[in-house]
């Protein structure tokens, strides 16, 4: 494995829900990304066995991703840890989590295959992290990993069927735990949330609004994106896995459902300057101190309703793949065009007048 250094910054907040805990009958995984790399984009890659899409830093070359999903329905993300490293491997040989995830997405279809892949890599691994993974067969696990060893935690073994993880490893030093306040806040939100009979509790839109847009301590100045993977029910085609993506500061960015069987919308990919237009707009709004969640929420809710309806028909076989792709592209591109054409100057002037 060709190593080059890259960092995911200081923190992240994450959660994995098993099929029994999500309310969807399928596993769900959240990564709320905090990092010094604020310019993010989505790219499609081709690995030795599987094609995949992943979140990557706009100012770096290919070869690393910071969360992603592949054609087999395998999804992976990570959170940095600060209490598990027990060696003197120098800093310049660390921060290789993105490279490990890039390699895994090209080769792995299951949680067990990821474990085998990890064991196949030369040591030291150059990581101190929690890898979160779900697959198309109901697998869901966290791997606490340092340079020479790992500890696997199957989420199905937990009493409530979910785990929240921030920036420490349970197997590491208790005195060096980081992100305790964010973990406690996320756990409190999940524990106290009461969904209605018609609401699938921990679907993507709920997790974005409940956790990623919840304010301090989870939403931070270094928050750059939020991802929710919705896996598939056992026996379902892996192509129905969805990587819901909020690219940019979550209160200023819209959620987009990304699929391995559909093209990544241009607004999330690199433009001529190497940046994703969706990310740039959200970061511009953040820089101006503008919270447009009240404006984008209605657009977002409408799109999600329409997408969920279309998704259901497609999964049930009532809409052909060709028709689904056409309707999906039309819906998402119209939605993103509307968001990207917002009159930012007028919005800023309105807010400042009200202040």
Could you outline the blueprint of secondary structure elements for this entry?
Layout (H helix, E strand, L loop, with lengths): L10 E7 L1 H4 L5 E7 L5 E7 L4 E7 L9 E4 L4 E6 L16 H11 L3 H10 L8 E6 L5 E6 L4 E5 L7 E4 L14 H13 L11 H9 L10 E8 L11 E6 L7 E5 L17 H11 L5 H23 L5 H20 L3 H11 L1
Antiparallel strand pairs: 1-2, 1-10, 2-11, 3-4, 4-5, 5-6, 6-7, 7-8, 8-9, 11-12, 12-13
| The first-level CATH class name | Alpha Beta
Q: What letter string, H or E per element, gives the SSE order?
A: EHEEEEEHHEEEEHHEEEHHHH
CA distance, first residue to last residue: 54 Å
- Beta-strand segment tally: 13
Description of the structure:
The chain is an alpha+beta fold. The protein has one domain: Penicillin V Acylase, Chain A (4-Layer Sandwich), CATH 3.60.60. Helix content is about 30%, strand content about 20%. It has helices at about 20, 95-105, 110-120, 180-190, 205-210, 275-285, 295-315, 320-340, 345-355; strands at about 10-15, 30-35, 40-45, 50-55, 65-70, 75-80, 130-135, 140-145, 150-155, 160-165, 225-230, 240-245, 255-260. Strands 3-4-5-6-7-8-9 form a seven-stranded antiparallel beta sheet, covered by helices on one side. A six-stranded antiparallel beta sheet has the order 10-1-2-11-12-13. A hairpin with a 4-residue loop joins strand 3 and strand 4 (about 50-55). Helix 7 (about 295-315) runs antiparallel to helix 8. The longest helix has 23 residues, at about 295-315. It is globular and about 55 Å long.
